[in-house]
Write a structure and sequence with these properties.
The chain is α+β, with helices and mostly antiparallel strands. 19% of the residues lie in helices and 28% in strands. The chain has helices spanning 146-151, 154-157, 159-165, 171-174, 176-179, 182-185, 188-191, 202-211, 214-220, 256-269, 309-322, 436-440; strands at 4-8, 27-30, 36-37, 53-59, 65-69, 76-81, 86-91, 96-101, 108-110, 113-118, 125-128, 133-134, 222-226, 247-250, 272-273, 275-280, 286-290, 297-300, 333-337, 343-346, 360-367, 373-374, 377-379, 384-386, 393-397, 413-415, 418-420, 423-431. Strand 5 (65-69) and strand 6 (76-81) form a beta hairpin. Helix 10 packs across helix 11 (309-322).
């Protein structure tokens, strides 16, 4: 039996939106048998414009699918349906919905016609049919507003986003039909990728400079937990041995106001169930898949969140301590672990990384709450556990000092189950190269 999910579209009762103007891609409405409806004479004229309607959607496709209300711009996400899952939505006459693969705005098509649901009757049943799939045509306008965005300079101000989402409208300005291919769009030549921030030996230089800096010890409570020379740098971990990796903590890195703004930023952005990275489609977008090893919720600190004073000061502090500019940082990931939630063993990078942004070379992890019991950051191969403490920063490298283009396989770690209390945290992943430019050009799997 299909799992039933109820989701509600909040709209003004008096508002009856006209159907958005179709782009250059034709659209298909699907009947209960999965057939394309070729005529639009499906409006029940007895329905009043203020009457709330209930419609139902069943996902028969093999894709985890996102349902968007077509708001005339680039859509409002209403809900997500797994394969064989059904859901209900409350809506109004004349509203229209479109369907994409989960986590990306790659529309689903039937016989090369975009799949849309047009509300025209009571108790309509809509289906995402088994043969729904992404289009084979890569260069297309996904939204009706693409042409307007293009006329208003969008191709120049947001080239990557526009190439991926409004390819046809930006073809003349950007040669988008060529750059829709991520091999061309994401080449180091096209992105003008700068020199990497670390060369061999630079990792040790940074951590050694911290370990001998009395100001960092006094101001932020710097503590060397593990180092390649544990005696020399007074490592506090009793199992630290010669050649061990660097692990350091700043015991009082964040102020109360910075902690408060990072927590507030998560509330602004909205926490959602954490996902893992899935397959990459032909235009370079990465699918989001529900994690089986990670049960926390997370949010990405962007826009309003990034403008909060405490968020800005926390990032600036990290820049000053590391000497690595913000362009190499991913946005703050904000994390929320409730009781019994966890993140099993994983590594923050991969063995090699040839993407334009390069490896995640450093993780700067910030604890925003005390945890009564559990919730430790545990380095599996080291048998080292760090207990959460409000305001503490934990920092470790993901790459090797002698070859920072290759991962340090010792740095697998996990978030232990929260047994009592609640764990909130934030982290910046810091890359070898400029991260922001590839992200703006759609070369990091998403536009976060």
């Amino acid at each position: 039996n299909a799992t039933m999910k109820l989701f509600r579209l909040l709209a003004l009762a008096a508002a009856v939106l006209p159907a958005p103007v179709a782009g250059s891609v034709s659209e298909a409405t699907i009947d209960s048998s999965g057939n394309v409806i070729t005529n639009d004479d499906t409006i029940d004229k007895t329905i009043g414009k203020n009457e709330e309607l209930s419609t139902h959607v069943t996902n028969q496709s093999p894709f985890r699918s996102d349902i968007y209300w077509d708001d005339g711009e680039y859509g409002t996400l209403i809900s997500t349906l797994d394969p064989e899952e059904s859901g209900s939505l409350n809506t109004y006459l004349g509203h229209q919905f479109f369907v994409t693969r989960h986590g990306v705005k790659e529309g689903l098509f039937v016989d090369e016609e975009r799949l849309v649901f047009k509300v025209g009757q009571r108790d309509q049943q809509f289906y995402i049919p088994k043969n729904a799939a992404p289009s084979t045509k890569l260069c297309q306008d996904r939204f009706s507003v693409c042409k307007d965005y293009s006329k208003n300079g969008g191709c120049q101000s947001s080239p990557g986003w526009m190439i991926v989402h409004c390819c046809e409208s930006c073809d003349e300005a950007l040669n988008a039909s060529e750059l829709i291919d991520p091999k061309k769009r994401c080449s180091k030549e096209n992105l003008n990728t700068p020199e990497p921030v670390w060369k061999a030996g630079d990792l040790n230089k940074l951590f050694e400079s911290w370990a001998t800096n009395e100001t960092l010890k006094d101001e932020f409570g710097l503590e060397v937990v593990s180092s390649p020379e544990p005696e020399k740098y007074q490592a506090t971990w009793e199992k630290a041995s010669e050649g061990a990796p660097w692990v350091v903590v700043f015991n009082n890195f964040l102020t109360d106001s910075e902690v408060a703004d990072l927590i507030r930023g998560g509330e602004i952005e909205g926490f959602e169930r954490s996902t893992d990275q899935g397959n990459i489609n032909e235009v370079g977008e990465m699918e989001k898949v529900v994690s089986k090893t990670r049960t926390s919720s997370n949010a990405w600190c962007m826009h309003s969140c990034e403008r909060l004073p405490g968020v800005r000061s926390a990032t600036k502090k990290i820049e000053e301590v590391t000497g690595i500019p913000y362009v190499n940082y991913e946005s703050f990931q904000l994390l929320n672990y409730e009781k019994n939630q966890f993140y099993r063993s994983h590594h923050d990078s991969s063995s090699t990384d040839t993407t334009p942004a390069g490896h995640r070379i450093l993780t700067f992890f910030l604890y925003l709450t005390d945890v009564e019991e559990g919730g430790e950051t545990y380095f599996n191969k080291l048998d080292l556990a760090i207990k959460p403490k409000k305001g503490k920063a934990l920092v470790w490298p993901s790459v090797r000092d002698d070859n920072p283009t290759y991962w340090d396989a010792r740095m697998f770690h996990e978030a232990k189950d929260v047994i009592k209390g609640k764990k909130m945290a934030a982290n910046h992943w810091i890359h070898m190269n400029d991260y922001h430019t590839p992200n703006d050009w759609g070369c990091t799997g998403s536009f976060t």
